[in-house]
């Protein structure tokens, strides 16, 4: 199979879908890899390194999309990339379709087979291709939140950990999954007073057993969210409904009751955001202020540390790329129900139920679409 790796074109996105080490693995297995020039240059994976691993170098994205049987990316395809996809071509990347009707429509019109990293599962019901970036995003959320609390960024002028004789900041993490756990760990390490809200008593028990009285754990109800949001200096939105749009847990009315120049960091922004006032921002212009509350809503947070993020992501994706290349997508999806859960679009049909529900589109079960 010929696998294409284009350069990412989203603003300030320097990650790359495959490392030279990954290229070497695929070439050694008899596949061909075509990498767009300078795809990894920003993180010191230059064209020479890809050539040494056995890849060919393409001068532009159009060549990649025209020739490759499978496209391996990081971020969701931008409109210009969607229009280059062709019928029957495999796209393997993050998609986040639920809050993005335009991308969904373009993928359906393309006739491509779109497999989303974020909905691939494992035997434990976890999301193994989302987890690495969730770990990075959770830790970055605290760094971004701490920076946004500085007065120059519009924040309250607080240091997370305080100093002797001065109270530390209050950090609220909504969601105790991978993002939430990593955010809580880093915030506690910085000396903040941290609370995690979640609806899973099992998860709250795990966190309590692990961190004890250093971490406050609370069951998430409307009342507990409202109470803790009002008290917080920094709120990190870390909720996830796999494949679906994130629920709006902090309303604009609640926003009006928050401390002046408190900070919201919405890690769920890729799925539409969990704060009603959220809207996607970029690394070039990461924050905005609404109702005197600072919002950090960068939609590709792990792109801030692209070398770490690329290595973490490709460690997880490479076995699945191998399976798709070795077996072809139909056999690979038939053999692995967890990879099949990643199938979101198949030749003009929407095959992920949560996305179809959120966008009010027709849903076709993946197995039926594959055998039609």
Question: What is the topological layout?
Answer:
Layout: E1 2-5, H1 20-28, E2 32-36, H2 47-53, E3 56-58, H3 61-67, E4 70-72, H4 79-82, E5 90-93, H5 101-110, E6 113-116, H6 131-148, E7 170-174, H7 178-189, E8 193-198, H8 201-211, E9 215-219, H9 222-231, E10 234-237, H10 252-255, E11 263-266, E12 287-290, E13 293-296, H11 306-327, H12 329-335, H13 337-340, E14 343-346, E15 349-350, H14 353-359, H15 366-371
Parallel strand pairs: 1-2, 1-4, 2-3, 4-5, 5-6, 7-8, 7-10, 8-9, 10-11, 11-13
Antiparallel strand pairs: 6-14, 12-13, 14-15
Helix pairs in contact: 1-2, 6-7, 11-12
Query: Into which percent range does the helicity of residues fall?
Result: 25-40%
CATH class of the largest domain: Alpha Beta
Q: What does the largest sheet look like?
A: 8 strands, mixed
**What is the fold named in CATH at topology level of the largest domain?**
Rossmann fold
Rg, Å, rounded: 21 Å
Q: Residue ranges: pLDDT <50 for 5 or more in a row?
A: none
The total domain count is 2
Spatially, the strands of the biggest sheet line up as 3-2-1-4-5-6-14-15
